[in-house]
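Task: sequence in, structure out. Protein: Glycine--tRNA ligase.
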Amino acid sequence: MATDQNKFQAIISHCKEYGFVFQSSEIYDGLSAVYDYGQNGAQLKKNIRDYWWKSMTQMHENIVGIDSAIFMHPTIWKASGHVDGFSDPMIDNKDSKKRYRVDHLIEAHAETLPEGNGDVLISKMNELLAADDLAGLKTLIETYNIQCAVSKTANWTDVRQFNLMFSTQLGSVTDEASEIYLRPETAQGIFVNFLNVQKTGRMKIPFGIAQVGKAFRNEIVARQFIFRMREFEQMEMQFFVRPGTQKEWFAYWKEERLKWHKSLGIDPDKYRFHVHDKLAFYADAAEDIEYEFPIGFKEVEGIHSRTDHDLSRHQEFSRKKMQYFDTEINQNYIPYVIETSIGLDRMFLLTICDAYVEEDLTKDGKEDSRVVMKLPAKLAPVKLAIFPLTKKDGLPEIGKELMDKCKSAFHCFYEEKDAIGRRYRRQDAIGTPFCVTIDHQTKEDGTVTIRYRDNMEQERIPMDKVKELVLNKINE
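Result:
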């Protein structure tokens, strides 16, 4: 699997330098695996979120959206299996005091072995994980003499399970407070509201419920920038179907979701499906959409056929019927569920990685280069930058007039200072697709120079056509 760590580090640096992503609490030396989105990152993230939300709730007549609370009744997490089963096997090196997720530790070692030997190691690990054989996993680590990357020793503790849910107290007095959890996923908020939405919305199966929201996991080995964080955002849709039709709907949503990714103009060759080797006991199909990041192919979205497991468990634990009466077949049943779950932060990182380009512009022996973010126009934080050529002769006033005309339709940026070339480069670096320069000719004939980010070509157009042109490109 080809990786490009240098490019990945360059992207991380670019994200900080141009206001996309900052280390959280940086002035206090930061907080591990927690990040803040800067002014450009927050807008890009919102644009991705809005594009997904529109594609789900506006473009599908039988899908509606909700926004459930982060705090939920603790029994929900018992019913969902998170209290008993949401854990990862961990191991500590006694010399470095560094903690590792066992599967990550073994996978990293497997990558250093010849291909056949590495595959054997991964196969043995998967068998032990499936059997919850923690002692066997430690023996496997010792057999292969897997060492800590920091201490270079193999002085390991026993392997033990570590629950990934954050817990907190609900109540004003500690002694009387009850323990609750920060949700580790958004899906359960949809399941427990299934009947509320179905009845109040008079929804008929098949129908879906979509949600975007924060989730929290106490990842011990959080890594790879914003790819794996402790606080992250999910975009999930649970699609409720008649039992027996789930395979057809699984195939439909698998195709539909890949189509959504391709609609962003991202290189389709960088996508692939990964079929799960081992299914959860309640599932009958599961595949991931993976993207080729500079750090290799990684999961971005999961499509899962979850049968009736979730609603059945909530019916059992709440003692409330979670059934649907299907008038077409005159029958009561607990619906089956097809889930599409995409990480918003991972989609943000995918978009950044796909857009980041370092271009050599050397011409006629004169060295030149630029870093450009070739973001889809519909997602770019700023759509149009407006540049008066000088700060005098009435050019700023014309620029502000164009700004006032366009800013209600899309995000604009106005700047007067520096040479025009420098202004262009700054906008290239944040991914602004169009720049307009207002010069003295504008005063004479009402035309402006519009520059296109990707090919740097320029053309003269009437100023009153700028808004229409940008809107057309955004909506393509």
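The first strand starts at residue 21 and ends at 23.
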